[in-house]
Amino acid sequence: MTINTSTQEKLLIIGCGDIGQRLAQQLSPNRYQVTGLRRHPPEDVPYLQYQVCDATHTGELNALLGREAFDIVVISMTPAERSDIGYEQAYVQTCRNLVAGLKHYQRRPRLILFVSSTAVYGQNDGSWVDELSPTEPDSFSGKRLLEAEQVIKQSGFAHSCVRFSGIYGPGRNRLIEQVKQQRASASTHYTNRIHADDCAGVLAHLIELQHKQHLAPVYVATDSSPTPMFEVVSWIAEQLGIRDFLASDAVNERGNKRISNQRLLATGYSFRYPDFRAGYAGLINLQA
Question: What is the CATH number that goes with domain 7-172+192-226+258-274?
Answer without folding.
Answer: 3.40.50.720
